[in-house]
Structure formats: C-alpha cells, structure tokens
Amino acid sequence: MARWAHADTLDGSLNVIKTNCNKLAVVAAYSAGDSYATVTGGSNILAEVTMASGDFTLGTSGSDRTLTTASGKQDASANNSGTSNTFVFLDTTNSKVLGATVESSAQSVTAGNPVNFPQIVITSKQWSAPLIDGFADYTDGVNAVKAVLWDGSDSVAEEAHLSNSRHKRASQCCR
C-alpha cells in the first residue's frame, strides 16, 4: 500500500515553528507535554535566544522535509546554572511550547557565561507504511482471538487469545 505526503503537508508543522517561534531555549528539565509555565518557570531556562522566521530555513533531506535553525545564535549571559537537557521552541506571545528536542551533550551551563546554540535540524518524515495495520477479532471455533494484521513486511505475526492462554501463529487466520 503506497503512502506519500506532499511537501506542503510535511511543511505544515515545521511552518508553525518557523512562523511562531520567537524564543529558543535550552532547559535543565523537560517531560513530553510540559506546559509553558512549567518550561519557563523557576530556574529551568538555562539560556535563551530570540528567534524570528528568518532564523529558520526549510529544506529537503531525501524525501523528508527539514527545518534548520540559524547558526551562530548566542546568549551572551546564561540565565541560570545547570546541566542542559532539552532545546525548546517557544511562542512567548501565545505562551506555547511549540516543540522540544533532546540536547544530547548534557553540557554544564554556568549563569553569566556565554552559551552558543548549535544549528538544530528538525525533520518531518515522509509517510511510510506502519508495521501494524490494525487488529482483527475472529474465532477459530473454540477460542475468541485477537490477531495482529501486518502490512506484509513480516511473515511472523503473533495473535493474543482473549479466552485462553494458548498461542497460535496469525498466519493461520490472516494471510
């Protein structure tokens, strides 16, 4: 089954960041879905730089789309001390965390020292076939069974029995 997305579709979320991100910050702590107040509160922001749409470049990597931040961005004086954990893309006008990505160096940041921000590349991946297409319920005449439906790329799929603990191959029902 073919899957594909036009560049405009892939660019959608990237353009939200490009258009609305006015601050890029490196923070000491971040958990997926953290609120703007959590991300920006206390001494969590170690360093930050002002961003504008011109600080982002849309590009292509194979069939994927990319958004790259400008190089050479620097916070001349770090806000707080701590160990860097995550880069967050912030919309301070609307109090939103637009995105976050791992800061893998885990550098120590000292308040008052300059912090250089690297180029960050965000990738919007071309759509591809999922490993699992879905689940189907069936009965083998004795047992109620839930089977994994594979996209055809793997010849071995397991099924989970709902009414007992015996296991059979999904190929008996799904291929």
Q: Could you give a short description of this structure?
A:
By secondary structure, the chain is mainly beta.
Structural summary, described in words:
A hairpin with a 2-residue loop joins β3 and β4 (64-69). It is elongated, with a radius of gyration of 23 Å. The protein has 175 residues and is mainly beta. Residues 145-175 have low confidence and may be disordered. Helix content is 13%, strand content 38%. The protein is built from 3 helices and 14 strands.
Tell me, what's the shape? elongated
Rounded to the nearest angstrom, the radius of gyration is 23 Å
The arrangement of helices and strands along the chain is HEHEEEEEEEEEEEEEH
| N-to-C span | 16 Å
| Sheet with most strands: strand arrangement | 2-1-7-8
Number of strands: 14
Which residues sit in consecutive blocks of at least 5 with pLDDT less than 50?
145-175
Q: What can be said about the biggest beta sheet?
A: 4 strands, antiparallel
- Kindly state the mean pLDDT as a whole number? 80
- Give me the number of helical elements: 3
Strand content: 35-45%
- Based on secondary structure, the structural category is mainly beta
Percent helix? 10-25%
Distinctive features:
175 residues; mainly beta; 4-stranded antiparallel sheet
SSE arrangement:
Elements: H1 7-20, E1 23-27, H2 36-40, E2 45-50, E3 56-61, E4 64-69, E5 74-75, E6 82-83, E7 86-91, E8 96-102, E9 108-109, E10 115-116, E11 121-124, E12 132-139, E13 144-150, E14 159-161, H3 171-174
Antiparallel strand pairs: 1-2, 1-7, 3-4, 4-11, 5-10, 6-9, 7-8, 12-13, 13-14
